[in-house]
Amino acid sequence: MIAVRHLPMLLTVLTVLIGLAACAPPEPVRVGYIGGLSDRVSDLGIGGLQGVRLAVELRNKAGGIKGRPIELIESDDQQTADIAVQAFDSLVERHVLAVVGPMTSSMAMAIVPRANAAKMLIMSPTVTTGDLLGIDDYFFRVIPATQEFVRTNAEYYYQVLGLRRVRLVFDIRNRSYSQSWLDEFSKSFSATGGTLLTPLPFTSSEETAFSTLARQALADRPDGIVLVANSVDAAMMSQAIRRLDTRVAVGTSEWAATERLVEIGGKWTEGITVAQFFERDGRMPTYVTFRNAFISRFNREPGFPETFSYDAANVIFDALAARQGNQTIKQAILARRHFVGAQRPIDFDDYGDTQGKTFMVGIRNGAFVPIKH
Fold it and tell me: What distance in Å separates the CA atoms of residue 335 and residue 160, rounded to the nearest whole number?
Protein backbone atom coordinates (compact mmCIF):
# COMPACT_ATOMS: atom_id res chain seq x y z
CA MET A 1 0.00 0.00 0.00
CA ILE A 2 1.07 3.59 -0.63
CA ALA A 3 1.73 5.54 2.55
CA VAL A 4 -0.44 8.59 3.00
CA ARG A 5 2.67 10.74 3.40
CA HIS A 6 3.69 9.86 -0.19
CA LEU A 7 0.42 10.98 -1.80
CA PRO A 8 1.36 14.67 -2.27
CA MET A 9 4.57 13.65 -4.06
CA LEU A 10 2.70 11.20 -6.30
CA LEU A 11 0.08 13.79 -7.17
CA THR A 12 2.84 16.24 -8.05
CA VAL A 13 4.55 13.70 -10.33
CA LEU A 14 1.23 12.81 -11.95
CA THR A 15 0.46 16.48 -12.59
CA VAL A 16 3.88 16.96 -14.20
CA LEU A 17 3.41 13.91 -16.42
CA ILE A 18 -0.02 15.08 -17.53
CA GLY A 19 1.46 18.49 -18.30
CA LEU A 20 4.27 16.97 -20.33
CA ALA A 21 1.80 14.84 -22.26
CA ALA A 22 -0.29 17.90 -23.03
CA CYS A 23 2.80 19.73 -24.30
CA ALA A 24 4.05 16.83 -26.46
CA PRO A 25 3.85 17.43 -30.20
CA PRO A 26 0.91 15.74 -31.92
CA GLU A 27 1.48 12.45 -33.70
CA PRO A 28 2.33 13.15 -37.35
CA VAL A 29 0.17 12.06 -40.26
CA ARG A 30 2.36 9.67 -42.23
CA VAL A 31 2.05 9.60 -46.02
CA GLY A 32 4.23 7.56 -48.35
CA TYR A 33 5.74 8.25 -51.74
CA ILE A 34 6.97 5.59 -54.13
CA GLY A 35 8.71 6.22 -57.45
CA GLY A 36 11.85 5.43 -59.41
CA LEU A 37 14.59 7.53 -57.81
CA SER A 38 17.76 5.75 -58.90
CA ASP A 39 16.98 4.17 -62.27
CA ARG A 40 18.63 5.56 -65.43
CA VAL A 41 15.33 7.28 -66.21
CA SER A 42 14.67 8.66 -62.74
CA ASP A 43 13.49 12.07 -63.98
CA LEU A 44 9.88 11.00 -63.57
CA GLY A 45 10.37 9.73 -60.02
CA ILE A 46 12.56 12.58 -58.82
CA GLY A 47 10.24 15.19 -60.33
CA GLY A 48 7.28 13.52 -58.65
CA LEU A 49 9.04 13.46 -55.30
CA GLN A 50 9.81 17.17 -55.50
CA GLY A 51 6.16 17.94 -56.22
CA VAL A 52 5.07 15.92 -53.19
CA ARG A 53 7.73 17.47 -50.95
CA LEU A 54 6.48 20.93 -51.86
CA ALA A 55 2.88 19.93 -51.14
CA VAL A 56 3.91 18.60 -47.71
CA GLU A 57 5.94 21.69 -46.86
CA LEU A 58 3.17 24.11 -47.83
CA ARG A 59 0.48 22.11 -46.01
CA ASN A 60 2.59 21.93 -42.85
CA LYS A 61 3.17 25.69 -42.98
CA ALA A 62 -0.61 26.06 -43.10
CA GLY A 63 -1.06 23.96 -39.96
CA GLY A 64 -0.93 20.41 -41.28
CA ILE A 65 -4.02 18.23 -41.09
CA LYS A 66 -6.25 19.13 -38.17
CA GLY A 67 -3.20 20.43 -36.35
CA ARG A 68 -1.06 17.37 -37.02
CA PRO A 69 2.09 17.72 -39.12
CA ILE A 70 2.55 15.56 -42.23
CA GLU A 71 5.53 13.24 -42.31
CA LEU A 72 6.57 12.07 -45.77
CA ILE A 73 8.19 8.65 -46.04
CA GLU A 74 9.99 8.19 -49.35
CA SER A 75 10.65 4.92 -51.19
CA ASP A 76 12.59 4.08 -54.36
CA ASP A 77 11.04 1.35 -56.53
CA GLN A 78 14.09 1.34 -58.83
CA GLN A 79 11.65 0.56 -61.67
CA THR A 80 11.77 -3.10 -60.68
CA ALA A 81 8.59 -4.97 -59.76
CA ASP A 82 10.01 -6.98 -56.86
CA ILE A 83 11.65 -3.94 -55.32
CA ALA A 84 8.45 -1.92 -55.80
CA VAL A 85 6.48 -4.53 -53.86
CA GLN A 86 9.08 -4.53 -51.08
CA ALA A 87 9.02 -0.74 -50.96
CA PHE A 88 5.24 -0.69 -50.72
CA ASP A 89 5.20 -3.35 -47.98
CA SER A 90 7.72 -1.27 -46.04
CA LEU A 91 5.46 1.76 -46.24
CA VAL A 92 2.55 -0.31 -44.91
CA GLU A 93 4.71 -1.52 -42.02
CA ARG A 94 5.53 2.10 -41.18
CA HIS A 95 1.82 2.85 -40.88
CA VAL A 96 1.39 5.39 -43.64
CA LEU A 97 -2.23 6.33 -44.27
CA ALA A 98 -1.93 6.57 -48.06
CA VAL A 99 0.69 6.53 -50.80
CA VAL A 100 1.43 8.95 -53.64
CA GLY A 101 2.70 6.94 -56.62
CA PRO A 102 3.86 4.92 -58.35
CA MET A 103 4.91 6.87 -61.44
CA THR A 104 4.85 4.17 -64.12
CA SER A 105 2.22 1.65 -65.16
CA SER A 106 4.42 -1.43 -64.78
CA MET A 107 5.11 -0.55 -61.15
CA ALA A 108 1.41 0.08 -60.55
CA MET A 109 0.54 -3.37 -61.86
CA ALA A 110 2.99 -4.86 -59.36
CA ILE A 111 1.80 -2.81 -56.39
CA VAL A 112 -1.99 -2.63 -56.81
CA PRO A 113 -2.69 -6.23 -55.67
CA ARG A 114 -0.77 -5.49 -52.44
CA ALA A 115 -2.59 -2.20 -51.99
CA ASN A 116 -5.94 -3.96 -52.38
CA ALA A 117 -4.97 -6.63 -49.86
CA ALA A 118 -3.82 -3.97 -47.38
CA LYS A 119 -6.78 -1.67 -48.20
CA MET A 120 -4.23 1.08 -48.67
CA LEU A 121 -5.11 3.88 -51.07
CA ILE A 122 -2.49 4.72 -53.70
CA MET A 123 -2.89 7.92 -55.69
CA SER A 124 -0.84 7.93 -58.89
CA PRO A 125 0.14 11.20 -60.55
CA THR A 126 1.16 9.72 -63.92
CA VAL A 127 0.00 6.10 -64.43
CA THR A 128 -2.29 5.87 -67.47
CA THR A 129 -2.55 2.15 -68.27
CA GLY A 130 -5.96 0.95 -69.39
CA ASP A 131 -5.46 -2.27 -67.44
CA LEU A 132 -6.57 -0.48 -64.26
CA LEU A 133 -9.47 1.45 -65.78
CA GLY A 134 -12.98 1.00 -64.37
CA ILE A 135 -12.04 -1.29 -61.47
CA ASP A 136 -13.32 -0.89 -57.92
CA ASP A 137 -9.99 -1.06 -56.10
CA TYR A 138 -7.58 1.09 -54.08
CA PHE A 139 -5.84 2.56 -57.11
CA PHE A 140 -6.75 6.18 -57.94
CA ARG A 141 -5.16 8.59 -60.44
CA VAL A 142 -5.33 12.31 -61.13
CA ILE A 143 -4.91 12.19 -64.93
CA PRO A 144 -6.89 10.43 -67.69
CA ALA A 145 -6.13 6.93 -68.91
CA THR A 146 -4.12 6.21 -72.06
CA GLN A 147 -7.03 6.29 -74.50
CA GLU A 148 -7.48 10.04 -74.06
CA PHE A 149 -3.88 10.77 -75.07
CA VAL A 150 -3.83 8.23 -77.88
CA ARG A 151 -7.00 9.51 -79.55
CA THR A 152 -5.62 13.06 -79.66
CA ASN A 153 -2.34 11.84 -81.17
CA ALA A 154 -3.98 9.63 -83.80
CA GLU A 155 -6.34 12.34 -85.02
CA TYR A 156 -3.56 14.93 -85.19
CA TYR A 157 -1.22 12.63 -87.12
CA TYR A 158 -3.84 11.74 -89.72
CA GLN A 159 -5.90 14.92 -90.05
CA VAL A 160 -3.26 17.63 -89.52
CA LEU A 161 0.08 16.09 -90.45
CA GLY A 162 -1.42 13.95 -93.20
CA LEU A 163 0.34 10.79 -92.03
CA ARG A 164 -1.03 7.56 -93.49
CA ARG A 165 1.52 4.88 -92.56
CA VAL A 166 2.86 4.99 -89.01
CA ARG A 167 5.07 2.66 -86.98
CA LEU A 168 5.17 2.45 -83.17
CA VAL A 169 8.42 1.68 -81.36
CA PHE A 170 7.53 0.64 -77.82
CA ASP A 171 9.35 -0.29 -74.61
CA ILE A 172 8.17 -3.62 -73.23
CA ARG A 173 9.86 -3.01 -69.89
CA ASN A 174 6.82 -0.86 -69.08
CA ARG A 175 4.54 -3.31 -70.85
CA SER A 176 1.21 -2.46 -69.23
CA TYR A 177 1.56 1.14 -70.39
CA SER A 178 3.09 0.50 -73.81
CA GLN A 179 0.67 -2.31 -74.66
CA SER A 180 -2.29 -0.10 -73.71
CA TRP A 181 -0.84 2.63 -75.91
CA LEU A 182 -0.31 0.23 -78.82
CA ASP A 183 -3.80 -1.26 -78.58
CA GLU A 184 -5.56 2.10 -78.33
CA PHE A 185 -3.48 3.70 -81.09
CA SER A 186 -4.13 0.79 -83.43
CA LYS A 187 -7.89 1.27 -82.99
CA SER A 188 -7.86 5.06 -83.17
CA PHE A 189 -5.48 5.44 -86.11
CA SER A 190 -7.21 2.69 -88.10
CA ALA A 191 -10.57 4.38 -87.43
CA THR A 192 -9.28 7.56 -89.09
CA GLY A 193 -8.19 5.59 -92.17
CA GLY A 194 -4.50 5.24 -91.35
CA THR A 195 -2.35 2.11 -91.48
CA LEU A 196 -0.28 0.93 -88.54
CA LEU A 197 2.87 -0.83 -89.72
CA THR A 198 4.25 -3.77 -87.76
CA PRO A 199 5.08 -2.38 -84.28
CA LEU A 200 8.66 -2.65 -83.10
CA PRO A 201 9.24 -3.70 -79.45
CA PHE A 202 12.45 -3.19 -77.50
CA THR A 203 13.63 -3.48 -73.90
CA SER A 204 15.02 -0.33 -72.32
CA SER A 205 18.57 -0.74 -71.05
CA GLU A 206 22.05 0.74 -71.19
CA GLU A 207 22.82 -1.75 -73.97
CA THR A 208 19.97 -0.83 -76.32
CA ALA A 209 21.31 -0.56 -79.87
CA PHE A 210 19.44 2.55 -81.01
CA SER A 211 21.04 2.73 -84.45
CA THR A 212 19.89 -0.80 -85.24
CA LEU A 213 16.46 -0.05 -83.83
CA ALA A 214 16.21 3.09 -85.97
CA ARG A 215 17.02 1.18 -89.17
CA GLN A 216 14.33 -1.37 -88.31
CA ALA A 217 11.83 1.39 -87.55
CA LEU A 218 12.47 3.03 -90.94
CA ALA A 219 11.94 -0.19 -92.88
CA ASP A 220 8.98 0.10 -95.32
CA ARG A 221 9.45 3.90 -95.27
CA PRO A 222 6.75 4.96 -92.81
CA ASP A 223 5.38 8.52 -92.89
CA GLY A 224 5.76 8.76 -89.13
CA ILE A 225 7.31 6.99 -86.16
CA VAL A 226 5.86 7.18 -82.65
CA LEU A 227 8.16 6.43 -79.72
CA VAL A 228 6.36 4.90 -76.75
CA ALA A 229 9.29 5.16 -74.38
CA ASN A 230 10.83 7.12 -71.53
CA SER A 231 12.52 10.47 -72.09
CA VAL A 232 16.07 9.10 -72.28
CA ASP A 233 15.29 6.35 -74.78
CA ALA A 234 13.07 8.65 -76.85
CA ALA A 235 15.89 11.20 -77.06
CA MET A 236 18.43 8.57 -78.11
CA MET A 237 16.01 7.01 -80.59
CA SER A 238 15.07 10.34 -82.19
CA GLN A 239 18.75 11.11 -82.73
CA ALA A 240 19.33 7.72 -84.36
CA ILE A 241 16.29 8.17 -86.62
CA ARG A 242 17.18 11.72 -87.66
CA ARG A 243 20.71 10.68 -88.59
CA LEU A 244 19.22 8.23 -91.08
CA ASP A 245 16.12 10.11 -92.26
CA THR A 246 15.23 13.77 -91.80
CA ARG A 247 11.98 13.36 -93.73
CA VAL A 248 9.97 11.13 -91.39
CA ALA A 249 7.73 12.71 -88.75
CA VAL A 250 8.55 11.72 -85.16
CA GLY A 251 6.21 11.76 -82.19
CA THR A 252 6.31 10.39 -78.67
CA SER A 253 3.85 9.25 -76.07
CA GLU A 254 3.24 11.49 -73.07
CA TRP A 255 5.64 9.37 -70.98
CA ALA A 256 8.66 10.87 -72.76
CA ALA A 257 7.56 14.49 -72.53
CA THR A 258 9.70 15.66 -69.64
CA GLU A 259 12.30 18.40 -69.95
CA ARG A 260 14.98 15.73 -70.03
CA LEU A 261 13.85 14.72 -73.53
CA VAL A 262 15.02 18.08 -74.86
CA GLU A 263 18.09 18.25 -72.62
CA ILE A 264 19.44 14.94 -73.90
CA GLY A 265 18.08 14.98 -77.45
CA GLY A 266 18.94 18.58 -78.28
CA LYS A 267 18.47 19.48 -81.95
CA TRP A 268 17.47 15.90 -82.79
CA THR A 269 14.17 16.33 -80.93
CA GLU A 270 13.19 19.48 -82.82
CA GLY A 271 9.72 19.03 -84.33
CA ILE A 272 8.66 16.12 -82.13
CA THR A 273 4.95 16.21 -81.26
CA VAL A 274 3.06 14.71 -78.32
CA ALA A 275 -0.38 14.86 -76.73
CA GLN A 276 -0.37 16.12 -73.16
CA PHE A 277 -2.66 16.93 -70.25
CA PHE A 278 -0.19 19.47 -68.86
CA GLU A 279 -0.30 23.12 -69.91
CA ARG A 280 3.21 24.53 -69.70
CA ASP A 281 1.91 28.03 -70.38
CA GLY A 282 -0.95 27.71 -67.88
CA ARG A 283 -2.15 30.98 -66.38
CA MET A 284 -4.62 29.66 -63.81
CA PRO A 285 -4.06 31.38 -60.43
CA THR A 286 -3.65 28.04 -58.65
CA TYR A 287 -0.96 26.99 -61.12
CA VAL A 288 0.84 30.32 -60.99
CA THR A 289 0.97 30.04 -57.19
CA PHE A 290 2.29 26.49 -57.39
CA ARG A 291 4.79 27.33 -60.13
CA ASN A 292 6.21 30.28 -58.24
CA ALA A 293 6.56 28.21 -55.07
CA PHE A 294 8.21 25.37 -56.99
CA ILE A 295 10.73 27.66 -58.70
CA SER A 296 11.53 29.31 -55.36
CA ARG A 297 12.08 25.92 -53.71
CA PHE A 298 13.89 23.99 -56.47
CA ASN A 299 15.25 26.71 -58.79
CA ARG A 300 13.73 25.27 -61.94
CA GLU A 301 10.44 25.09 -63.84
CA PRO A 302 7.99 22.33 -62.91
CA GLY A 303 6.87 19.82 -65.54
CA PHE A 304 4.04 17.33 -65.60
CA PRO A 305 5.53 14.88 -63.01
CA GLU A 306 6.00 17.67 -60.48
CA THR A 307 2.59 19.26 -61.08
CA PHE A 308 0.52 16.10 -61.00
CA SER A 309 2.37 14.72 -57.97
CA TYR A 310 1.63 17.96 -56.18
CA ASP A 311 -2.03 17.46 -57.12
CA ALA A 312 -2.05 13.81 -56.00
CA ALA A 313 -0.62 14.72 -52.61
CA ASN A 314 -3.13 17.51 -52.09
CA VAL A 315 -6.06 15.24 -52.93
CA ILE A 316 -4.92 12.92 -50.15
CA PHE A 317 -4.40 15.80 -47.71
CA ASP A 318 -7.82 17.29 -48.49
CA ALA A 319 -9.48 13.90 -48.06
CA LEU A 320 -7.73 13.34 -44.72
CA ALA A 321 -8.86 16.77 -43.54
CA ALA A 322 -12.44 16.08 -44.63
CA ARG A 323 -12.76 12.58 -43.16
CA GLN A 324 -15.58 12.11 -40.72
CA GLY A 325 -16.01 9.40 -38.13
CA ASN A 326 -14.75 6.04 -39.32
CA GLN A 327 -14.52 7.03 -42.98
CA THR A 328 -11.61 5.57 -44.91
CA ILE A 329 -9.61 7.84 -47.18
CA LYS A 330 -11.16 6.14 -50.19
CA GLN A 331 -14.65 6.80 -48.84
CA ALA A 332 -13.75 10.42 -48.10
CA ILE A 333 -12.52 10.97 -51.66
CA LEU A 334 -15.60 9.37 -53.23
CA ALA A 335 -17.90 11.31 -50.91
CA ARG A 336 -16.39 14.56 -52.10
CA ARG A 337 -15.34 13.56 -55.65
CA HIS A 338 -14.41 17.10 -56.75
CA PHE A 339 -10.96 18.48 -55.94
CA VAL A 340 -9.01 21.52 -57.07
CA GLY A 341 -5.84 20.78 -59.01
CA ALA A 342 -3.07 23.20 -59.89
CA GLN A 343 -4.25 23.46 -63.50
CA ARG A 344 -7.79 22.11 -63.57
CA PRO A 345 -10.50 20.44 -61.49
CA ILE A 346 -10.02 16.77 -60.60
CA ASP A 347 -13.27 14.80 -60.60
CA PHE A 348 -13.21 11.14 -59.62
CA ASP A 349 -15.70 8.56 -60.83
CA ASP A 350 -16.79 5.52 -58.81
CA TYR A 351 -13.54 3.73 -59.69
CA GLY A 352 -11.04 6.46 -58.88
CA ASP A 353 -10.50 7.38 -62.54
CA THR A 354 -10.64 10.89 -64.00
CA GLN A 355 -11.35 12.46 -67.37
CA GLY A 356 -9.90 15.50 -69.06
CA LYS A 357 -9.07 17.13 -72.35
CA THR A 358 -5.65 16.51 -73.89
CA PHE A 359 -3.97 18.67 -76.52
CA MET A 360 -0.94 18.65 -78.76
CA VAL A 361 2.42 20.23 -78.01
CA GLY A 362 5.58 20.26 -80.08
CA ILE A 363 9.27 20.91 -79.52
CA ARG A 364 10.13 24.21 -81.14
CA ASN A 365 13.49 25.96 -80.64
CA GLY A 366 14.35 23.62 -77.80
CA ALA A 367 11.13 24.04 -75.82
CA PHE A 368 7.68 22.47 -75.57
CA VAL A 369 5.07 24.80 -77.06
CA PRO A 370 1.32 24.35 -77.63
CA ILE A 371 0.31 23.53 -81.19
CA LYS A 372 -2.59 25.55 -82.55
CA HIS A 373 -4.62 23.60 -85.09
Answer: 42
Is residue 248, in this structure, part of any structural domain at all?
yes
- Residues 151, 138 share a domain: no
Contacts with 65 (C-beta within 8 Å, 6 or more apart), sequence order = 29, 59, 317, 320, 321
User: Is position 116 within any domain?
Assistant: yes
Q: Could you tell me the CATH number of the domain that includes residue 104? A: 3.40.50.2300
Report d(CA 359, CA 372) in Å as an integer: 9
Same domain assignment for residues 40 and 134: yes
**Domain count of the fold of the chain:** 2
Q: List, in order, residues 6 or more apart from 150 with CB less than 8 Å away.
A: 181, 184, 185, 188, 275
CA nearest 196: which of 161, 154, 237? Answer: 154
Q: State how far the alpha carbon of 6 is from the alpha carbons of 9, 16, 20, 27, in Å.
A: 5, 16, 21, 34
- Rounded CA-CA distance 261/238 in Å is 10
Let me know the angle formed at the C-alpha of 312 by 90 and 205, rounded to the nearest 5 degrees.
65
pLDDT digits (tens, 9 = 90+) for 317-347: 999 999 999 999 999 999 999 999 999 999 9
Main-chain dihedrals φ then ψ at residue 193, nearest 5 degrees = 115, 0
Q: Tell me: do 193 and 261 sit in the same domain.
A: yes
Q: What is the DSSP string of 128-139?
A: --GGGTT--SSE
pLDDT single digits (tens) 160-201:
999 999 999 999 999 999 999 999 999 999 999 999 999 999
Q: Are 169 and 217 in contact (CB under 8 A)?
A: yes
Output the DSSP codes for 275-316: EES--TT---HHHHHHHHHHHHHHSS---HHHHHHHHHHHHH
pTM comes to: 0.91
